[in-house]
Amino acid sequence: RNTRTQIKYTKTHTKHLRMSPPPAPIPTPTLAPTPPPTPPPPPPQSQQPPPNPKTGGGGVALSYSEGTKSLPSDAPEWAVAASQRIQSRGNRLVATPPEGVERVLLHSCCAPCSGAMVEEMMCASRSEDNMLGEVVVFFYNPNIHPKKEYEIRKNENKRFCEEKGIGFVDCDYDSDNWYARMKGLEYDPERGHRCTECFDMRMERTALYAHEHGFDAISTTNATSRWKDAKQVDGSGHKAAARYDGIQYWTNDWQTDEMTLRKYQISAEERFYKQEYCGCSYSLRDSNDWRRANGIPRIAIGGDAAGLGDRYFSDPMVDAQEESQDVVDEFFSQAKAMSDAAGKDVKERKRQLKIYEGRRKTQKADGDTQGLNNW
Question: Do the Cβ atoms of 233 and 199 come closer than 8 Å?
Fold first, then answer.
């Protein structure tokens, strides 16, 4: 049928051509050669990202010593010492990539924990002392609850990466799988077995993506926070990397005073959203229980006002003090004592909270509320 139609069309078309007078020939004009287009002027130097000599391109230049030369007169001794050490090191790297690593997939839990670690890795990628040429941020955090909080943290992280010209991978929010894996661990304390399982799950997915997309190493910004046990975090990272040939886990002491100070300077410069709890629903529950027992407002999800303190990072000294080692140690010491005494017994947990109620209310009356809203 198609053949017949084509033939009929051809005959009709031919008949039409025979009935039409032949067209008069059109003289071909002589055209002058077209000059090549003038290239647009280059953008101002300040808008051009410095090229990476190893990859030919890259994001915005990052200097690890930015923002460390002017501290307030009342800055604590640790901050002054950290600032001086940062300035004295110049462009020298503290965190050297594993040997032979060219591409790193950095799992990120949130923007505030990413700042100094991303900066350090990007500086390493521009150093001639190693092979590192690319750093990509991988956002996989199905533990974060509720979804509104998850979206806030993800978008903050994405904005920071876009601003710095860093690749960003938005992975699935498979919270159902996370809850299935945490079953039976609902009342574990922070830094307990539930946290290990949570780190394992996120690092396993990071390592799989790295394996599938040709990365040489993985790491995680969870290792920068003093609210996390670095050995626990690194253990999950090493286990996940060991599943695949050719994948290494980049470990380093990311919790030094220098890294902590720089992390909070970047967070203040970027005005990052300040989360008030670790992220999972159990952390949210336990933090609100603690606040309720001590007359402190509940955690606020999103919005311009936090339940306690400032909504956004603004003062590096105050923000860093909320993560001082003394504050962190006190929190986990009391959390572990309460968990050991109460376990999964909800009534006993409430009774244990009463033990610390008087002490914490006294501290609150004295204006000591540090460490309660900065994770």
Answer: yes
Percentage of residues of the chain with pLDDT beyond 90: 42
User: Using one digit for the tens of pLDDT, what is the confidence trace for 283-320?
Assistant: 999 888 878 877 889 999 999 999 988 999 998 888 87
Q: Which residues pair with 138 in a beta bridge?
A: 107, 169
Distance CA 250, CA 163 (A): 24
Q: pTM of the entire structure?
A: 0.73
Q: Which residues contact 178 (CB under 8 A, 6 or more apart)?
A: 142, 143, 198, 201, 280
| Token pair 């790193």 in the structure block, residue | 104
- Which of 147-150's residues contact partners 24+ apart within 8 Å by CB, and which partners? 147/173, 147/175, 148/301, 148/302, 149/275, 149/279, 149/301, 149/302
Local structure of residue 89 (DSSP, 8 states): H
Torsion sign over Cα 233, 186, 154, 241: positive
* Own/partner pairs, 332-341, CB within 8 angstroms, 24+ separation: 332/189, 332/190, 332/191, 335/189, 335/190, 335/286, 336/189, 336/191, 338/189, 339/187, 339/188, 339/189, 339/192
The kind and range of the H/E element at 137 are strand 134-139
